[in-house]
Amino acid sequence: MTLPTDYFGQVIVTGGGSGTASLIGIRFTGIAFTTIPAVNRSALGATASTYHVFPQFADGRAGDGTYYRTTVMIVNSSSTSGTCTLRLYGLTVNGGSTFNYGTFPRGAGPLRLRSAVCRTSGSGYAALQCGMPVEAQLLYSFYTASGTKISEATVFSSPPGGSVQVLADNRDASSLAIAIANDSDQVTSYTITAYDSSGITVGSVTQPIAARSNLARFLSSLISLPPNHYGPVLVTSSGGSASIIGIRFTGGVFTTIPEAIR
Fold it and tell me: FRET pair for 161, CA 20 to 30 Å: which of 19, 74, 239, 243?
């Protein structure tokens, strides 16, 4: 099919008769690409929720001129209409930290909000509250100083849990960064433990995180890792909960590693 310039919208695939379809989208910008997950239109998916937490929201320009932008993607996959509010903690984007979205008709989407580029790098987390279950993701985009996109990755929301993990793979000159959001009104301490592929503890550290804030670090800056480490990284909280995301960097190229609740 022929699409208009700068098209964005829904692409719906339906199976004939009683057939079904499995679908994935892959978004290319030159050689940079990321996956776009499918949304089930015939039934409410397991990842649909009225509340989504994104442990990292990246926006801003570094000293060398490279910069990040984040795009918010929301689809109302429910059978009811409603409104949504996105709140940012630890940074402002486009001059604000709260964004209200008008009524979403049922089945509507995607709504797309793209951040501006701040003069300095910003880091914080985001929480999305809706009056109906929605599917929601972020899209991180990383650019050279001249505006060429280097890398892009889709970021899934991270439901809070008392014990959550991501998988680390630091082989092939890669490094795992993790972001932990404390989406509560009290200071909470989090224990971060890295294991090897056999389940043996490599190292552990405890970090307090203030209320309504996040921690974003490379794992190697928190724990001394052996060369080419790979294995699970477990985050547990003291009387609270954590929402985490992993970001695996290989030079300027990166991808996200979703959490698993333990």
Answer: 74
- Look up residue 161 and give its DSSP letter: B
Report d(CA 101, CA 177) in Å as an integer: 31
Collect all residues with Cβ–Cβ distance below 8 Å to 214 and sequence separation of at least 6: 55, 56, 89, 90, 123, 124, 125, 179, 180, 181, 182
Q: Which residue in 53, 135, 134 sits closest to 89, CA to CA?
A: 53
Of 138, 130, 225, nearest to 177 by C-alpha is 225
Return the residue matching tokens 């059978």.
Answer: 79
Two structure tokens written together for 262: 């333990």
Of 138, 140, 131, 126, the closest CA to residue 212 belongs to 126
The H or E element containing residue 222 is helix 219-222
Evaluated on CA atoms 63, 258, 155, 52, the torsion sign reads negative
Tokens 């090897």 — which residue? Answer: 196
Say if residues 181 and 222 touch (Cβ distance below 8 Å): no
Enter the tokens of residue 157.
Answer: 């929301």
Secondary structure of residue 133 in the 3-state scheme: strand
CA end-to-end distance (rounded Å), the chain: 44
Q: What is the pLDDT of residues 81-134, one digit of tens each?
A: 888 999 999 988 777 889 888 777 776 665 666 665 554 556 789 999 999 999
Bridge-partner residues for 3, per DSSP? none
Supply the DSSP symbol for 64: T
